[in-house]
Automatic annotation (TrEMBL), chain A:
Keywords: Membrane, Transmembrane, Transmembrane helix. Pfam families: ABC2_membrane_6 (PF06182). InterPro entries: ABC-2_transporter-like. This is ABC transporter permease. The chain crosses the membrane at residues 21-43, 63-81, 126-149, 155-176, 188-216, 236-254.
UniProtKB/TrEMBL annotation, chain B:
Residues 24-257 form the ABC transporter domain. It comes from Paenibacillus pinisoli. Keywords: ATP-binding, Nucleotide-binding, Transport. Gene3D superfamilies: P-loop containing nucleotide triphosphate hydrolases. This is ATP-binding cassette domain-containing protein. InterPro entries: AAA+_ATPase, ABC_transporter-like_ATP-bd, ABC_transporter-like_CS, ABC_transporter_ATP-binding, P-loop_NTPase. SMART domains: AAA. SUPFAM superfamilies: P-loop containing nucleoside triphosphate hydrolases. It comes from the Bacteria. The keyword Signal does not apply. GO terms for molecular function: ATP binding; ATP hydrolysis activity. Pfam families: ABC_tran.
UniProtKB/TrEMBL annotation, chain C:
The keyword Transmembrane helix applies. Coiled coil: none annotated. Keywords: Membrane, Transmembrane, Transmembrane helix. It holds the Pfam family ABC2_membrane_6. The chain crosses the membrane at residues 21-46, 58-79, 117-136, 148-174, 195-215, 235-258. The keyword Transmembrane helix applies. This is ABC transporter permease. InterPro entries: ABC-2_transporter-like (IPR010390).
Amino acid sequence: MKLYLRMLGNSYQQNIAYKANVLMNLMGQILGLFIQISVWVALYGGSQGVNSNIGFVSIQEMIYYVILSTGISMIIGNQVIEQMDGKIKSGIIAMDLIKPMNFFVNILCETLGNNFFRITFQLTPLILIGFFIFDMTIPSFTNMMLFIISLINSFILNFIISFILGIIGFWYLSVWHFSRLLEDVVRLFGGIWIPLWFFPKSLVVVSSFLPFQYIYYVPINIYLEKLSLNKSFEMLTSQYIWILLLSGLTYVLWRKGINSLVIQGG
Amino acid sequence: MSLISVNNLTKQFQRPIRQEGFTGAVKDLFHRQYEYKTAVNDISFQINQGEIVGYLGPNGAGKSTTIKMMVGILVPTAGSVTVNELIPYKNRKIHAKNIGVVFGQRTQLWWDIPVTESLLLMKYMYKIPNDQYRKNIELFSDILDLHEFKNTAVRQLSLGQRMRADLCAALLHDPKILFLDEPTIGLDVVVKEKIREFIKEINKVRQTTVVLTTHDMDDVEKLCSRVIVIDHGQIMYDGNISHLKDKYGSDEIITIEPEHNHDLISLRDKLLSLNVMDTKIKDLKLQITYNKGDINSMQILSKIMSESSIIDFTIQPCEIDEVIRRMYTENSLKGKLKI
Amino acid sequence: MHYIQLYSRFILIYLKTRLEYRFAFFMDILIQIITFFVMFLGLWIMLNHFQTIRGWTFYEVLFLYNLNILSHGISGMFFMSPMRQLEAMVQNGEFDGILTRPINPLPLLIFKQFQHAYIGHVLLGIGSLILCINKLNLELSGLNIVMLILVLIGATLIQSAIMIMTGCVSFWFVKATSLSNTIIYDLRRFLNYPLSIYNKFIQFLLTFVIPYGFINFYPSLLFLNKEGEVLFTASFQYGTLIVGLLLYMLSITIWSVAVNKYQSTGS
């Protein structure tokens, strides 16, 4: 445990070395936020609210949605696919497998280190912007708790999905294809960019069969109190089911990947 | 008229001095201070067609700066370089057709493209006529054994293979002069030998002038008819190797293995009467260092043979890197004395 | 002429080599197409629900988007890889080798790399541009076609010029290109929507400082007859080619200053 904490700390500190990068990243995020808010304000075109799949949505709520989605991406984002790709291509993975620690936890710690870093240096400014410039409010205590739980689930879900695509690197050379694909699919069906509120019925159905909406859309809706308590629990349950299913898949693929590594000798 | 003419060449670099801390950074922003470093200081030499010249010196002596000015990458601060009657940096593109360049471990070829195709692109780039190209490819492939990897992408080649491919590419357009920066660094003995053979061959057949920098003294001994030694931006020596050795390195070492170990010490004592510089016992062998001007090897050997029987002996001439090392220390001593 | 000949030979050999790994080659292109398609679908979802964004319909926004993606794709094929790698080349001395060839350094860098993934951008850009023209019932007179081609040339020049200028940064500063890249690429995201939805500061910035607006927003006003959207002056609608040429000339000047600087300082 101590070892893992230490690794977490290391990757946190490595980030500090790239101060300028962090600043630029933050600027990029804030520019993105600014673009999204401008877009929604223009789409609303002066009206205070519009109808959607879940009823009336005010421009205020829409702006909160954009801020929340940016914030969540800072909390749960990861570079797992790139990390694993690097380790597999360079053969470092063989070294990592010999070490007396779990590879999965190893990657998880590095990710957590990165994410804590982003939380301190990127999320904090974002929260300040949200609360002081856009007058964001905190939801009820129950919803706040549910939000935090669902956010943790989102992190795990996103991590597992990335890990699965990372495993594909054992067999496939250009892994960036998959990381890009995931990015695109999550951007759309995860509701990062456009809430599922505004999706046509057919696309809502499609996305209900996919795990992606549980990553962004669900926690945001809980925060904005758009879901009833029952519905919220239902969504949390779905998150757990997806986590379970995908963990199983991860295990199977991981075994196969390791075997292929042993057979080919890296 | 010499092919390469370097006259009073000087290159100074200007480097900003960074001040420490935040206030320092702000100061830098408004008032930058510079320090000047003279990499090449008023050097002159001429190189004629057909010479193979070793350009030697320790790291940071100004070797690559000089080469870069001869190649046309750098503009001199003062003095002049003329190569084949052109000023390299002013006539960069025409000049480029007269020279071939291989820079150490960095390939000039297309990373993703197989060697043959890469060479073909060189043909188009230098507008090499068909028959010249065919003839050269045939000749070079034979000497350099390019056949074994000609269809491999450059990024998949080993260092030695890449070096051979780069050499071939640099010579396809029949340049008058070949500049080589550390051509054998990191290569195994067989490849080194092959590359040296190739350079010699090209020099002989084509009368190609070769200027090379190296840290490998075998390269120098086996290839160079002449060496130029540079240190602290100034030329320390310019001439042939044997003369360099006579001047700085007329010491030789004889190593003897006597039949009976107990002879070692008595032998050593007996040799003290001769005019040798040093005797040492190491690994049951006797090492005798002497100056060729004082005594020759036959005199020493006959003395030893008269005293005891020996199994084996070797005579080790002074190595060129040792010679240069001595030159440096002598130079730096002089420098210190001046102060 | 020699350059064109040389380049066409390089391209043929490059594509031939790449096509030996056919699957990877097509995947590279396909992934770009998917990204584009997601953008397409997203825009459609938005405008299906909201009808217009500040009066711009789905196909109008798509037209706008296409001009951006198409010009970016074309200049990206040639300039993206060399300019991304320039920083490393200057630092590890590989750029020295570039200066020993009988060809100018900028064309030579372009001859060394080709970014085939952008073929996807270009193909889809053209395809969906035709779709937009069709759906928007734009008149395809000879004049309009010539105008469109000139606009695309201008837009490509703007994109290329900005790529070249960001590359040049590495001749002066160490590790600065990643920073300038971030600024440039994040700013380019503004182009996905009409410039008129942003505040005056952004409009000014993207018109006079980094003239991205001329890539798609201003020429779109002309083709889509959006008199109501005019920013600053209506004559900007005709400005793309001029801005492109000027900016490209500026970038080439900066480039040669940068190479001269490299030749005198060696770093």
